[in-house]
Structures are given as C-alpha cells and as structure tokens.
Amino acid sequence: MQRTKKPLIWLMMVALVVSLIPAGLAPVASAAGQTSYFTPDNTANVPLKSTVGLKMTGTGSDVLSRSTAFVVTSAEQAVTGTFTNVTGSTLGANVQLLNLKDGTWVPDSSRLAPAVVTVDPNRPDNRFNATLTLFPGMNKVTFSGSQGPSERSESFYILYDSVPYIEKLQVLGGADNLDLNEGSQVVVDTGDVTIQGVAHNSSKVTVTLNNGEALPTSLSTQDGTFFSPMLRLKSGKNDLVVTIESGVDKNKFTYSLLYYDEENPFSQLDLKEGSDGLSQSMLTDRPTYGGDPAQARVMVELLLPDDKTTAVPEISVDGVLTNIVPKIEPIPSVGINTPSYSLFSFEIPSLKFTESATGTPPVTSIDSLQNHSLTVKYGKNTASTNMNFQYLENETVITDLRYLKDYSGSGDAPEGVPLSGSSVTSADFYILVETSRNPNGSLLTAEYLPRSTSPIELSTTPIQVSPTKYIYQIKGFKNGNQTVQFKFTGSKSSKNATISFASKNYIFVSNLTDGQTYDMNSKKTDKLLLEGKYVDFATLDSKYFVAEIFANGVKVYSTHPAANTKQKQLTLGADGSFEDVEIDIDGDTGPLFFGENRIVLTGTGTGDKGQLNEVTKELRIYINDNNVSTINNFQPAPSKNRSTFLDPYNPDDQWVKNLFNLSTDFTFADKKYTTSLKNFDLAIRGAGATRMSLSMGTQTIFDLNIPDGSATNTTWQDPIISSEYALNNGNVIVDRSGSQKDFVVRLRDLKAETPGTYIYTLDLYNKTGAKTSQKVEVVREAAGYRILAPRPTSGSQIVVSKNFVHFDIEAEGATSVVIDKETAKKLQGTETDRFALDYVGLKADKVNKIKLTIDRNGVKTNDTVEVYYTSNTGVDSQYMAPKVANKYSAFNKQLELSFPKGTVMQSTDLSGIAKFYPNNKLLFGIADPNTGIVERKNDYGSIVGFRTEAEDPNPLSVPDDYYRRFSAIVGDSVNFSPVSEIYWVSGGLGESGTRGDNNYKEPTNGIGPYTVDSLYGNPLTPAERKIKPSQRGTLTLAYDPNVVDDAGSTISVFYYSPSREWRRIGGEVDSKKHTVTVPFDEFGYYKVMKLRRSYNDITNHGWARNILNALYAKGFMAPLRFEQFGTDDRTSRGEFATLLVKGLNLPITSDSRRTFTDVAPGTSSFTWDYDSIETAARAGIITGLTDGVFGPDRPLTREQAAVMIARALELKMVANDSKLQSALAKAFIDSGSMESYAGPAVQAVTKAKIMEGSPVTVAGQKKPQYAFNPKGNLTRAEAGKIAVELLKKSTKVFPKTLS
C-alpha cells in the first residue's frame, strides 16, 4: 500500500506545481498545423491554419517553403477565424517580412508593420476579423492577445507572390463602357477610345495598338487603376495588347477590338497576286501591282450592323452582280446602347483589268491606273468603296517597311514596328523590307528627302527571311526627323518612311568619377590624368565638331585651340577616345588647386532634329594634399547682412560665393585686413581635414570635429567652445556645413572694441594627424578716415590703364567729402559713414594729383592721392565717359556709340514701372577673350578671376561656368574668326529696394562684368537693376584692316547676351574705314567676326552661294542641321517674318501680350522666334491665316512673301480694283490664281524689282510670257535671294554688288 501511495503523491505534487505556472510563460509545443489560440478560416493552396508551427530551416513538409506557405497574389488580405483563451479586447497582429539566408528564414527588423484585428460583433462565438497589408515575399503574421497577466501569440506564414494581373478592363468612348475580355470581340462605333482598367501588383502598364509603339498609361499606385492615352482605331479589327510589369515579372494580355465606321465600314481591302502573294491594302493608298493580271485577287472584310435580315448579301464588282457568298460572323451586343453587328469576309477571285487602245494601228494595252468599285448590300445596309491601284508590269513593289528594334543581325528577327513614324535608338539599325514579289537580286537604295549630300549606307547582302522578306542594315543614319525614300534599282515605284533619330551622344570619363577625392603629394609636381571617350558622336569626323576641356573655367584642351594661348591640342581617336590628357595641379597657379575643382568636358553633337547641340560632362574633383589639409579661404566678413547657411551643402550655391567675396569694409594689403568695424565674422573653407581648431593669440576659441560625409557620419557635432572665450564673448555661434572633402565654417561676431591688431590662427588636422596652419591678421583702425578705394596696385603706387578711378572713403562723422571739387555721394545701407565717387578725367601717361577734403561740421582734413594713368590700349583698358553725351568714342575710335537726343538710361521693374538715370556715365572696356574679365584687379585691390601669385588676396568669386560659356566654341561659331577686340559696354546698375532700408542698393555708373554688386548674366539680378538706353543707339566697331575689301557681306558683329551665349547681329560694313555698324539696344559684350568657312550645301549650290553665306554670316538665317544649312528646304512663314525683322533692324516691341494663339511668348524654332513674329505683327508686316492663327511653320507661298515685303518696305500699292486685275493679267498668265488681297503687293514688289515672274514659252508666241506662281512655295535659297534684293534696296547691310 505504501509503495503505491508515494508515487501517486509525487505525481499530484508535480501537477500542482505546473498548474501554478502562468499559461503565457509555459510555451505551447504544438505540431505544424495544430493551432492553440487562433484558428484562421482562409484556404488557398493550403489552409492558412496549417502553416502554424512550420520550422524556419531544414527540409520536409514541416519546414517553411513556397509549397507549405499560404500563397496569395494581393497585398491586401482579409483574414477571419476563431480565437480562444484570449480576451477579445486585447487582440492584435503584426506582419513581418522574412528573408532566406543560408537556408534559414530570418526576420527583417526593418520591415515590420501592425495589422488591424477586431472582434466580429455579429457572432457570439469568439470570431475575429483581420485586415493585413503584406510585404512582397514571405510574411510572418503573428496574432496576439492576453488573458489576465498572460500574453499569448501564434504565427502563420503567408507568401505574397506579387505577380501582376488585370482585374478589370473596359473601353471608354462609345455609347457604353464595354468590358474587354481575352478571346471575345467587342465593337465600338467611335474611332477615338480610351482603355481603363485595374492592374494589381504592377509598377508599369503599357498599351500597344496594332503592333505600334507601347504607350504609357497613368497608373495609380493606390488602387492600380490606369487609363491609356487616346487611341485612334482603324476601321474594322484592331489588335490591342496590354502589358503589365512589376519588377522582373511581365504579363501580356491580348484583346480584339472592332471599330464600326459608318462612312467607311471596310476594314480589309487587300490586293494580292494568287493565293501566296503578298497583300497590299487599297484602303488608304494606291498600291502598285506588278504581277500577272490574271492572278489578281482581292481579300475583303467589312463590318455592318445586324438588322436581323434573312436576305442573302449581294456583292457587285464594277457594277456587275457576282455570285460571291461571304462568310458572316455574328457579334452579339454587349451593352445596353450598343447594337449587334455582323462581320463579313470574302475573296474576289479575279479582277478584270481595264484596257485602252493607243497608236495607229491601235494597240490594246492594260491601263496603268486601275480604278474599280465594290458594293455590298445586306438587308437595309449598303456599303461601297473604290479599289484603285497602279499597274506596272513585272514591278517589284515595296509593300511594307518595319523597324527591328534590338535586333543584332543574327537569330530570330522580331516582328518589328512600322518604320515610318519610328524613333530609332542608334545610328546603325536593322529594317525588314517586304515586297510584292521576289526582287531577284535587285539592289535596294535609300536616300534622304529632300536630296542630301550625305548618302545612306545600306547592307548590300541582306538576310533573306522569305522570297519576299529581307532584312537590311542601315549604318550612320543622320540625326533629325528624316524622310527617306526606298526603292529597288530598275523599279519605278518607291516607298517613303519618316524616321526620327536623336543621337544619345555623351562623354564618358573612364578613370574619374564625379565627387572623387584625389590624393597627392604637394612636394612633387603632379598632374591629373584624364582618359575617356566621346560616345555616339556621329559628327566626330566633321570639321564642325568641337571638343573642349575646362578646368575651373579655364580652357585647357580644345580640338580647335586658340593661337597664343596655353590651350593644348585635344586629339581624339577615330572612335572618339582620348588618353594622356594631363592637367596641372598647383596650389598657387592651377588650373587645378587643392580642395574642390570643377572639370567640364564639352562636345558639339546633334539634337533630335539634326541641329547643333552642345553635350557637357561635368566632374567635381576634390584634391587632397597627403602632407597637409587644405585651407581654401580664411578671411574676415561683415556681420551685417550675413549669408544664411543652407543644407544640403552645395558649393555652387550663391550663399557660398557671397560668403567669400571680400567686402569693401575690409582692405587687404601686406597680408593684413584693415577695417574700422567693431565686430565681424571669420569665414573658413577647407578640405581634407577631420578636425579643426581656431584660436586668437594663445587663447583657443573652439575645436570642431568634421563629419566624413558617409551614410553614417553626416551630422556635425557641436563645437567645443573654450570656457574662457565664452565668458568674455557671451553666446558663441559657429555655423558649419559640408563634409571633410569640402566644408565651410563661420564664427560669428568677433569683437574688436579697441583699435589694434587681432591675430587668429586656424589649424586643420588630416586623417594622418598632419597639421596645416594659417594666420589671418585683422587690423582695427581708428583713423579719421580710410581710403578703401583706390588701393595701391604696384608697391605704394596707384597705376591704372583707365581714365578714371573709383573712390570709396570711410569717414566716420563726416558731413561731406569733396574729391577735386566734386562732392562724393554718401552711401546708404553701410555700417559706417562712407562716401563714393567715380573720378573721371585722368590725364594720360602722367601722375594725376587728386585733392581730398573731409569735412566734419566745418573741421576739414585734406589729403592728396596720386594716380598714374597709362593710355596703352589692350586687354584691361577701360574708358569712362567724363559726362553724359549723345556721342561717345573710345580706344582711338575703335569703338563709337551714339544715341538720339533725349536718350537717358532707364530700368524697368517687374510691374513695368520705369526709373530713369540721366546722370549715369557709360563705361567701355576691352575684355580678356578667354574669361571676359575687363579689370583683373579692381580699385579695392580685389582680384577678379584667379589668384596667380601667393600674395594675391582671395579672388572675387565668379562661377567658372561664366568663364567657360564665354570662351567656349559653341554651335556654329567654329565657322567664324575674330577680327577685333572684345568690347564691354556698360550703363551701370539701377537702384534696388527702398532708400534707408538695409537691403537698399545704390545706382552705379558703368561697371565691369564681374563685381561684388553684380555678375553679367546672373539670372538672379533684379529687373530694376538692369539698365537699358531709352532709345535705340548705333554702335560702330573697327575691325582688322588686313581683311580684304570684299568681305563686307561676311563680316558680322557678335553680341554676348545676358543668357550667356554669343549670337550674330549682322551690321553695315564700311570696307574703306574697316568698320561695321549695328543698332544698339543692350549693354554687354560685342566683337567683330568674319565667316571663314561655310556649309557644303551652300558652297555647292548652283546660284545662291554668295547670298546664303551673307545671310548666314549676318545672323539673318540659321543652319537647320549639323553640317547642312538646308538650302533647298522650304522656308516657313515664321522664318521669313523673322528674316525681315532682323534684316531691317526693327526694334523688338514684343511683350507677354501675344497677337497669335499659336505663337506663345518664349517659343521659338531653329528659324523663328516669338519676339520677331510679334514685332512683325505689331508693325503690320504680317497677319494671320485666320483670326488669331499665324501658322509659323506653314510653308510660305510667293504671294504671301510679296505681301510681307510690300508692308515691311511700305511700298506704294495701288487700289485693288478692276484696273489692277487687268494689269496683273497682262503681266502674269497665272494672275487668276492669285488671292485677291495679294494683287497690290505682287504688283508693288515686281515694280520694285524685288520679285519677278518666271518665263513661260507658249506655243505660237515669239516672246515668252511670265508666271508669278503665287501658290508656289519658296525654298530657303529662293527666299534668301528675295531677302537680299529687298535689303540691298532698303539698307546698307549688304554691298550693292552682292549677287
């Protein structure tokens, strides 16, 4: 008994202990598929509940895998089920992505999302509803809840297989929204439809109609709804393919859509030879048939409404009823408002060709033009069509041309897309040519239309697909939207295709990447090596191709290096490759420096329409010195109006440039910055450092660690401020931005209460611990006055190459400052009392002593400044007009500028309000041809451009893009050579802001292009600061007297506009004085250039070479394509109007109020622009084709040209009456075809001998009669000839001898 009781007692005690353990702490060891707390109802490939307890690794049916998981194809899943042993109010769930690593499913901690679980209120039996949003891939779904203190959970596994699929597809546009389903046919009664659908698990949906291009759709990322663009259906059957993609998955769905066109119900009308011949459609074209007439047959298909008749269809050919019985396929209605239809198909087994008898005796032959008719009658419906084609005996006809995209020349060829209208992706591509019969070795030819000097290279050995299908390769296809004519040798028929090719040319640098850091040893001479390739430039072998390399704005290599410069020859291989391109690295002289550098490579490519196009590759390179870190800038800056630091850091931002432009509050001399400011900032820019330290004397101000810019280290730590410095200076603020490879730091509000010298030391430490140090010495001066400008230029002397100096005198408490009897103007918005004056009238080649008087309420202080003015003319020379005048002359009369009386300088703000500046003095300068710099060292002592000596102060910061754009050979400027200096003309800057405010800017006299106040071409310059003359002036420039006399038609003035591009503006040439004169509307840069070479189609033109060269040189006409001017292209209405405005030098009068709805402000093409067309409209030269529509790209007719010319020249025009009609009838045999409005203009231009008719020989007439051809279009050469004649009569822009 005792033996039995003891084991039983022990078992009861163990059971009692176990029962005391909370259920949530006792793990549930359930086998796979056996649930404990949550039991889902959902079933798919497997029941969801069967996934509970699956193992995460191993093999077998109890291990998680694709076959054991619950598989779904939608991200949103609703799960229902039962729960037990948990409280309903505590239910929850989460979804976590699992990744398979080394055979084990591992949770992804970054992909965890909550789910919504609720108790089903309609069920009393512990039912739950859950909504899950799954991650693509394997998901672990964990349901949880609690009962008392016990937490309970259970996990299930769902594989979200995000395969894309379409849930619903409809066609919109007809009477009903019709559902589209695979395998079924749907009929619509409208030709323009849109496809709407819902695509799940898709990132992209495209729609293809009738084997055309894949069109993108608007796809909603929220619910998968998409809409196609408007689709234009053809009559009858249309093949529709919807492609949906998601990552690597792609599915295509094919549908059939029928379009019933009541006016043209025929969907197929194909002519073919025998049963195996190739079909040619007669629906839209007149095909050519070259086969046996006895074998000609026609395949027909048409769609008609089903009127429920039982009648037999009647089919008549050429009016004769046949016994043809068609196949009828009923198509039931699928919409409330959509009727049912019948699809008819049949074959006309033979077609009797028409014949004619000609000659004596008459010989019967088959007509070349075959015209036949077809009628189908079915119940109440009758449909008729023509069957027209051309017959050429034994002719090989091209019936189809298809573009084989991505075909490489081997393997199975794709079906391709129609060649006409295609955009090819490479200059070399393959096409499929389909013919009506075997060409039997005939050679296929192709040529551009209009005729081009460049042939099209076609493979002479095609790939045969079938006896009537061959694959050819086209090589070296030209850029642009080209029309190409294809035909076989010996054949009279041809087929045209319009092909678009935009070369995807780019520049590849193989050994450097953007943002790369380059380490070097500054103790050794080093160079940066560039290797790479100009890729897909079809223009490499052209004389017009230009490739250039710039380093920090300095041109270092060019395929066309300028003479007498340091530019090196850039040599490219036949494939565009370059190597051994070396750029010097020098911390003092460059062109590459330590720290950030910009390397820009440019190449002249061709655009999508064949026009000139510059391709640019820009690299930002950071050069670190292995020995030390780099201190790029360390200088004082005023605290007032300081720049705001912005993130992310971009060294191109204007706030960075402004930060290091030395303020006029500081003067730099003898390595010291002198100022009267009592507090200022210190600005620092460096590179290659991991930490920095700043101190004043022996006192540390702060230490600062610099982030390396990696993904895990981008945030700046707070600086460690010296407690002693903080005690004396209060709140210390250190601004910082950037990373170790390029950073800027600013310490705000350093105090200089007492006059004296303040020395600051900056230490940078690189990753090796090496230290770079630099000191900056700031002298706080408390003199009665300071001369901020002019500063000594050579030792203690002031030597200038201009007839003026700019005075800026700081005189605290002064009531006035007089400079040689002229009172200086007190500046507004400065921290101290400053007085400025442009002192004009220095005597040449001698010392000028200029007396200064500073007046403080009657207490006067006098001083004398000596300035030597050297009058040698050259780069850096400047001349300021001593007073406002109507005529100006500078640089020994090399430049002369005149204005009408009453002209003043003015600016206009954005509201159109004008401000006038009658006292502004104009500035003239001679610019550096490489940079555009007019004054390398300004009166404040600031260097403009690049530091060339170690003693130079920090240069005025100018983005290198300004220099690069100025000197780059862009577009067709390679065809011109300079024959003069580059002149700078400035009228100054207007005032900005409100006088008395901190942001107020004073107006100025003429200034240089690069100053602290403004950069020429800066789009951020306020409109009210841009000065223009109130009336048009006249500018005359001298050019090289060695240029021959007959160059008057090929010399042109070039103007560098504020958009930073050179453009031709023409000019009237005086070949005896060697000057050229142009209208003057804008300040900026001007130079004289001479045409040195032209385009082949101009040079080889039969009669227009001289006039087209002249129009091109003067900028009145522009080339249409790379290497081609487009002499025989048709001129447009817009081009001719633009030519008249430019040729007649009409002042531009356009604004945002447009005359024509189809010519909007800012629009332009290669041949016309909005400003010129709007100016012509307001001058009454042009009117619209209809009310408000001009049609700038429409071809110009001769009578339209006559009207424009007569209006532009204000020719005397007679009354448009019967007398005029009679006179025109005598003059021109085709006067009856003239529009009535054009008659007076035609007579006026012919009387003025600007236009004339063409002689026409009439049988029986001894003298020829003349035809004006009023509706004929003008080629560009013909339009050019007319333009030259009118300009010779009305202007002096061309010599009278030009012909």
Describe this structure in words.
This protein is mainly β. It has nine domains: 27-160, Sandwich (Immunoglobulin-like); 165-259, Immunoglobulin-like; 266-391, Immunoglobulin-like, CATH 2.60.40; 398-442 and 449-501, Sandwich (Immunoglobulin-like); 514-621; 630-713 and 727-771, Immunoglobulin-like (Sandwich); 783-872, Immunoglobulins (Immunoglobulin-like), CATH 2.60.40.10; 877-1093, no CATH class; and more. Helices cover 9% and strands 40% of the residues. The chain is built from twelve helices and 87 strands. An eight-stranded mixed sheet has the order 1-3-6-5-4-7-8-2, with no helix packed on it. A seven-stranded mixed sheet has the order 52-53-61-60-55-56-57. Strands 71, 76, 77, 78, 81, 82 and 85 form a seven-stranded antiparallel sheet that branches. Helix 7 (1133-1143) runs parallel beside helix 9 (1198-1208) and helix 9 crosses helix 11 (1239-1247). Mean pLDDT is 85; it is low at 1-5 and 14-30. InterPro entries: SLH_dom.
